[in-house]
Amino acid sequence: MDIEHVVSMPRRVVMLIYPQVASSDVCGPLEPFGLANFLTGRRLYDPITVSVDGAAVPVAGGFLKLAPTCSCADLPTRMHVFLVAGGPGCFAAAQDETLLSWIRRLEPRCAVMGSVCTGSTVLLASGVANGHRIATHWLEAMRLEADSEVSSPVDSDAIFVNSGKFWTSAGMMAGIDLALALIEKDHGRQLVLDIARFMVMVLRREGGQSQFSSQMMAGATEDPRIRRVQLHIWENPGADLSLDALSAHAVMSKRSLSRRFAEMTNTTISHYIEDVRLNMARSLLEETDQSIQAIAANSGFGTTMTLRRVFARRLGVSPSHYRANFGTDRISANAPNAVESGLRMELENVVNGKSTW
């Protein structure tokens, strides 16, 4: 087999499935690899599904069965990516020694191995990722962090994590972010931006971004007094959010509020306020043309210096760099028809098999 033929061969991407797997964990991450082929007009990837014995498996919820491409025994000698899907069945899969032994046997044959969502639980049970930092669904992260037998550090806040050959993602749709990161590593950022646009995604999220918002977590807090404080912070990020003001809003003593808030949210009030303001600033950078100074004021940080300092510490980038990567592109008011025409012609070329790639 000559070198030119080897280079042109599609990269095999394998998703391991099992009973009660989440269908979104399977189809979501595989979709970008298929779109990479479609948009370029070239067979860059060969995405497939596999079960231990090649039999179809029911998905969580019981609304369909997934028929895998093949069994583990039929997999090729070498694979580019091997991912374990997540879902409610992960706990039974993590006890299935036949499945775990296959993961151990296949690991040396994969350039990249990883998991989507709670597939991390199966991956960890196999032992192949011991010592590597992993990402997973935030609820499963809480359970794993409390398990003294888990030898791998768990990042409960990351969208996805790359540690050596292991790539793991947070809950469900974060698997798409992981897939896009792998495609970018293989073929560059432009293809990833094209795929994201085609999937009606604004832009790919970086791995270090938080997998859940402070507002969403406010709705998950059981104590109504703490939930009221959280929502007040979210709705008024620029207000007086001192402990005195918040304790009056909650009708609690400052000491009781601080203690109860930490018990219910596993974080401090000051850290939560910073989370909310950071989320607000990110949204404004992504969705508006406001100046950095205006965003600092509207998100509650007050000064651009404070805004920059928090972005550098929490995200590792400046606000302007964040906007350059994640801000919504603005169509020039002077030439909307030309831009729309260009996009329409580009899409028509792809559909007609005349890829610009």
Q: Can you identify the CATH superfamily of the largest domain?
A: Class I glutamine amidotransferase (GATase) domain
CATH third-level topology of the largest domain: Rossmann fold
Distance between the termini: 26 Å
Give the overall pLDDT as a whole number: 85
Tell me the CATH architecture of the largest domain: 3-Layer(aba) Sandwich
* Count of beta strands: 11
Task: Give your account of this protein's structure.
There is one protein chain. Helix content is 50%, strand content 12%. By secondary structure, the chain is α/β, with parallel strands linked by helices. The two termini are 26 Å apart. The protein has 17 helices and 11 strands. The protein folds into 2 domains: 10-198, Class I glutamine amidotransferase (GATase) domain (Rossmann fold, 3-Layer(aba) Sandwich), CATH 3.40.50.880; 214-326, Homeodomain-like (Arc Repressor Mutant, subunit A, Orthogonal Bundle). α2 (23-40) runs parallel beside α7 (174-187), α7 (174-187) packs antiparallel against α8 (189-198) and α10 (224-235) packs across α11 (243-250). The longest helix has 19 residues, at 269-287. The strands form 3 sheets. The protein has a 7-stranded mixed sheet.
Keywords, please?
disordered N terminus, Rossmann fold, alpha/beta, two-stranded antiparallel sheet, disordered C terminus, 2 domains, 7-stranded mixed beta sheet
Topology:
Blueprint: H1 3-8, E1 11-16, H2 23-40, E2 45-51, E3 57-58, E4 65-66, E5 70-71, E6 79-84, H3 90-93, H4 97-106, E7 110-115, H5 119-126, E8 134-135, H6 138-145, E9 154-155, E10 160-163, E11 166-169, H7 174-187, H8 189-198, H9 214-219, H10 224-235, H11 243-250, H12 254-265, H13 269-287, H14 292-298, H15 304-314, H16 319-326, H17 336-351
Parallel strand pairs: 1-2, 1-6, 2-5, 6-7, 7-11, 8-9
Antiparallel strand pairs: 3-4, 10-11
Helix pairs in contact: 2-7, 2-8, 4-5, 7-8, 10-11, 13-14
